[in-house]
């Protein structure tokens, strides 16, 4: 029998050491690095992934000195007494034959503190602080600090380090004309701009000796104006190899780039083409990155010879046992990362602890524990949306007898709407995962089985969990019952036809999803070439940063996205993905209007008022996307009959559709019962 994923699971021989497979867990900052006793939790987090079969782990970024920290209290490895806490991590990982490298990251002008330094005094658009231009002495000291950090990492038991030279951080800032305006030997020509990266590599190799992994994270696609030219990428790769790098990891995009690189609408494996091209120029292993979230995609990239390893960061957040499941031929049991960013990147950029929408135990391995139940209970779960699915699975896995009731003919609740949105096809994977997990856990699933208080009371359930979800909020203005007026469920579930001119009332997540749905004829998330064309990524790499003029996009309809609030339309969307949704709709010419008062709907269309001026939108249809109310009609009757009832998900809070909160709430309740 042929082994599953033969390229993905093959060992990688580095000469002085061997990595057991081709899966690298990419660097992710979790926020645990700064928490009290956070390194104990980090050790458990990384150990779970090592136990789950990953070959090589790269930690979140750790600064080599004070000025390079992400924030004032950010993590740093620069003193001998810092070593002890890191040993907790390396010892935990090494118990499972995995290897781990510490990422050395100096933020440069991306630092969120007033002590930031950079090649030039140029403020980054994503930080409120203007950095000081580094002096010659500071540059030399920083090179030594990288070497010192690597040496301390070696003492802490790490198998290697990754030198972070991409994503717009300090080394990348020296490399690109965009951020390096120096006129001394560290600026100007490419040789001068590259000197900082090469000197760091040489110093690090000298500090740790030959038998130590050094990964260099090379920015292959800056995706910003005045970024690298392709010839410079190749020249730097060769210099980095000569300076002693063991491997080169791909870096894609700066944090300030106006091209998305990891959100769910980015096609799978969208950037393996540039790794494949650079791979032809060097002789050391190369790692492909970004939107590689299934073993099939990883296998395909490796089998085509586009890379020697594949990096997965968030996919291993979503499922610690990703590799073990692939090895066992159970890829269909993997909890696939949907690239939503909601609990990982969004949390980190808000100074919260990272986790995962589809896996609330991520980064909570020592806290959200699922122990076998001491007393087995017979539980009813009403509603198979995200909250109900999560609770049912966790509770059954703990040993409870769980009956899951769903009024429709399929599980998923609002996920069944989301999966239809162009760019959100990954939601199909979550529903596939839960369907298999329900079966494995022994949950008794009852579809097309609407429940009443009477039907639930007829059964002898110990406790009843209402995950009944939400109802769309009704609007109250003249003409709200006009034939032109539809609800978002009419559009996304019932697929009622729409005219050529449509107004959407409500510009939250649902409004944006409906706008995307009705303005897109084919999903660019399913085609790398189409996606590159739309976002202006030049596969021929003719100019700096690999940017070209984005292709125009057209909507088959004229659409107005309206909101009552006077704030920016889409302000409440995800911190790291909201701009993508806004940019996508803007490119299609969607009218986004704030501060709207709705007057009436009649045969002519929707009458609105903005700043005291009444106007008519001559639309064929008006779609209501104005929020939801909890659906909890069973609660009072069940509690009156003496039953213990729990509300989770939208049935508990329906301010906005929030799968992240719903799944976590389901998990936390299951852990307690």
From TrEMBL:
Cofactor(s) essential for the protein:
FMN; [4Fe-4S] cluster
CDD domains annotated for this entry?
DCR_FMN
Q: Which biological processes are named by the entry's GO terms? A: fatty acid beta-oxidation, unsaturated, even number, reductase/isomerase pathway
Q: Which Pfam families match?
A: Oxidored_FMN, Pyr_redox_2
Keywords, ordered alphabetically:
Flavoprotein, FMN, Iron, Iron-sulfur, Metal-binding, Oxidoreductase
This protein's gene is called fadH
Q: Source species, please?
A: Pseudidiomarina insulisalsae
Name this protein carries in UniProt: NADPH-dependent 2,4-dienoyl-CoA reductase
Q: What is its EC number?
A: 1.3.1.34
Q: Which family does it belong to?
A: In the N-terminal section; belongs to the NADH:flavin oxidoreductase/NADH oxidase family.
Under InterPro entries, the record lists: Aldolase_TIM (IPR013785), FAD/NAD-bd_sf (IPR036188), FAD/NAD-binding_dom (IPR023753), NADH:flavin_oxidoreductase (IPR051793), OxRdtase_FMN_N (IPR001155)
Cite the GO molecular-function annotations of the record.
2,4-dienoyl-CoA reductase (NADPH) activity; FMN binding; iron-sulfur cluster binding; metal ion binding
NADH:flavin oxidoreductase/NADH oxidase N-terminal domain location: 8-330
Residue limits of the FAD/NAD(P)-binding domain?
A: 378-645
Instruction: Please name the Gene3D superfamilies in this protein's record.
Output: Aldolase class I, FAD/NAD(P)-binding domain, NAD(P)-binding Rossmann-like Domain
């Amino acid at each position: 029998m042929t082994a599953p994923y033969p390229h993905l699971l093959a060992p990688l021989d580095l000469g002085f050491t061997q990595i057991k497979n081709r899966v690298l867990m990419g660097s992710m900052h979790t926020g645990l690095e700064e928490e009290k006793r956070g390194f104990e939790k980090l050790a458990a987090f990384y150990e779970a992934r090592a136990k789950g079969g990953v070959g090589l782990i790269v930690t979140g970024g750790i600064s080599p000195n004070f000025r390079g920290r992400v924030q004032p209290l950010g993590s740093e490895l620069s003193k001998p007494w810092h070593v002890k806490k890191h040993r907790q991590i390396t010892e935990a990982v090494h118990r499972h034959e995995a290897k781990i490298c510490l990422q050395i990251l100096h933020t440069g002008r991306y630092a969120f503190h007033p002590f930031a330094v950079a090649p030039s005094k140029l403020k980054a658009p994503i930080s409120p602080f203007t950095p000081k231009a580094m002096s010659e002495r500071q540059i030399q000291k920083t090179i030594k600090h990288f070497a010192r950090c690597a040496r301390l990492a070696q003492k802490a038991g790490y198998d290697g380090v990754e030198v972070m030279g991409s994503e717009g951080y300090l080394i990348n800032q020296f490399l690109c004309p965009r951020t390096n305006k120096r006129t001394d030997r560290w600026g100007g020509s490419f040789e001068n701009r590259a000197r900082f990266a090469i000197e760091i590599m040489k110093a690090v190799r000298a500090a740790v000796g030959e038998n130590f992994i050094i990964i260099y994270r090379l920015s292959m696609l800056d995706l910003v104006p005045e970024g690298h030219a392709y010839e410079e990428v190749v020249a730097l790769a060769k210099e980095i190899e000569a300076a002693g790098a063991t491997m080169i990891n791909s870096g894609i995009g700066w944090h300030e780039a106006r091209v998305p690189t990891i959100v769910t609408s980015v096609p799978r494996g969208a950037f393996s083409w540039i790794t494949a091209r650079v791979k032809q120029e060097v002789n050391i292993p190369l790692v492909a990155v970004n939107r590689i979230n299934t073993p099939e995609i990883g296998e395909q990239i490796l089998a085509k010879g586009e890379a020697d390893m594949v990096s997965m960061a968030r996919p291993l957040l979503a499922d610690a046992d990703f590799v073990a499941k692939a090895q066992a031929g159970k890829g269909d049991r993997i909890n696939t990362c949907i690239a939503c960013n909601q609990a990982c990147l969004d949390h980190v950029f808000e100074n919260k602890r990272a986790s995962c929408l589809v896996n609330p135990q991520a980064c909570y391995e020592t806290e959200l524990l699922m122990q076998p139940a001491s007393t087995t209970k017979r539980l009813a779960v009403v509603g198979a949306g995200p909250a109900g699915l999560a609770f049912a699975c966790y509770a059954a896995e703990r040993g409870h007898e769980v009956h899951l009731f769903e009024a429709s003919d399929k599980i998923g609740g609002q996920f069944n709407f989301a999966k239809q949105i162009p760019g959100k096809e990954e939601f199909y994977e979550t529903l596939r995962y839960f369907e298999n997990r329900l079966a494995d856990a022994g949950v008794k699933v009852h579809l097309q089985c609407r429940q009443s208080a009477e039907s639930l009371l007829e059964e002898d359930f110990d406790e009843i969990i209402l995950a009944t979800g939400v109802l769309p909020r009704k609007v109250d203005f003249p003409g709200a019952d006009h034939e032109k007026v539809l609800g978002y469920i009419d559009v996304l579930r019932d697929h009622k036809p729409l005219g050529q001119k449509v107004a959407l009332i409500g510009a939250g997540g649902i409004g944006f999803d409906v706008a995307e749905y009705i303005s897109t004829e084919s999903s660019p998330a399913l085609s790398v070439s189409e996606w590159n064309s739309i976002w202006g990524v030049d596969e021929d790499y003719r100019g700096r940063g690999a940017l070209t003029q984005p292709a125009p996009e057209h909507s088959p309809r004229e659409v107005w996205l309206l909101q009552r609030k006077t704030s920016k339309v889409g302000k409440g969307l995800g911190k790291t993905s909201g701009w993508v949704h806004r940019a996508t709709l803007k490119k299609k010419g969607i009218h986004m209007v704030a501060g709207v008062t709705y007057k009436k709907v009649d045969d002519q269309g929707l009458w609105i008022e903005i700043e005291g001026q009444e106007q008519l939108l001559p639309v064929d249809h008006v779609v209501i996307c104005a929020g939801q109310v909890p659906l909890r009609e069973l609660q009072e009757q069940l509690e009156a009959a003496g039953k213990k009832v729990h509300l989770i998900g939208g049935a508990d809070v329906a301010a906005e559709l929030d799968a992240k909160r719903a799944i976590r709430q389901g998990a936390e309740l299951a852990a307690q019962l």
